[in-house]
Amino acid sequence: MKPARVLEIISGFAVEGPLGGIERFGIELAQRLDRTQVEPIVYGLWSYEAPYEERWLRKLRESGIEAFMPAVWSEEAPYRAFVRTVREARRHLRGQRVDIIHSHCQFGDVAALLLRRQLGATALVRTVHNEREWGRRPGRRLLLTNLLFPIVFDAELAVSQKVVDNLQGRPLSRLLRRPVHKAYNSLNFARIEQVSVDRAAKKQSLGIPPDASVVGTIGRLMPQKGYHVLLKAAEIVLARRPETYFLIIGRGELEEELRELAAALNIEHRVIFTGPRTDIEELLPIMDLFANSSLWEGLPTAILESMAARVPVIATRVSGNTELIEDGVTGRLVMPEDAEGLARGIMEMLAASPEERAAMCAKAYAYVRANFSIDRVARQHEALYRELVNYSS
Fold first, then answer.
1. Per-run averaged pLDDT (10 residues), the chain, 393 residues
2. Cβ atoms 216, 249 nearer than 8 A
3. What residues does CATH 3.40.50.2000 cover in the chain?
4. Residue 17: what are its φ and ψ, rounded to 5°?
5. CATH superfamily of 194-371
6. Strand ranges in 75-198 using DSSP code E only, listed in sequence order
7. Which of 275, 379, 298, 371 is CA-nearest to residue 36?
8. How far apart are CA 299 and CA 322, in angstroms?
9. What's the predicted TM-score (pTM) here?
């Protein structure tokens, strides 16, 4: 039997910014699929004209995976950019056999619908990576997520139980009795575990003294991540622990606003905005604590990476985070939008003994290693793809 040819659609290859964990997951999934069963093609909807995009394309192609990004993203004309990427994808894929189209992003879901007929795909799959689809476009959520997608997609996957519950709660999903599969985000643990870092030298490269405590976070600088809450918590922490540094890794639409807030709080000398980085695996070991201040989530890859690197984690009590963290056992949970609570939690965790921190990190590592391996999730995807191809044949 021929391997199923699966078109994996991600937003793009600008993993270090402005994109992030979802796109890295899509790339790592494609790399770990068994080629005797699945032949992946990775389609990045857009180029964000970032210098590291070509590196990801090259890595995929060198491993024998077809990968392409046919258009450039435009913030000013997103719909024109969408029409362009679908048109160019059709041209790129003309004459190729595609059995399954699997989307990992909102615009990718629509692109999958438009590409299905031309490519002759037997099945459409989408993974919902976030609790709130089309957060700024409730009309699209009603039309697409609630009314159209339950009918036209052959399978829907969700990265956390909360997302599963949201999708299964749609009236059409209940009427059609179509199950939603839980498929966690996951990691290639070797990427984290094989890194060796000179912590003092790495700190020095960022202007951080070798004996300073470092509270780090990774993600797009966007409203969902609640970084304004983290900065307000940082002000409280620095009043008590002025030797602490806060490391904010990533880029996004709120960068200038967040820099201005740090200056207004008079903490800009202790907050480092690194911008996009290609050395995340080397930055994690210099952190004494990873802080997630999100207002909502799917299943954050950055928390998985921190646990894999044995960095203690404090995070908001929102869906996704609560499936990764057992409060007081594998990390700490605080309420979202509570700067004082977040600050208290940060100070308590920084003040914990080395033995307490090591015990928490060991439990967190054991949990994520057992449940969130990219190989385990790849096997789950392979089984679903086989089922869909066999069902349609």
1. 93 91 94 96 96 93 96 92 96 95 96 95 95 81 91 94 92 89 91 91 96 96 96 98 97 94 98 94 97 93 95 96 96 98 98 96 96 94 94 55
2. yes
3. 4-186+373-392, 194-371
4. 145, 135
5. Glycogen Phosphorylase B; (3.40.50.2000)
6. 100-103, 123-128, 155-158, 180-182
7. 379
8. 9
9. 0.90
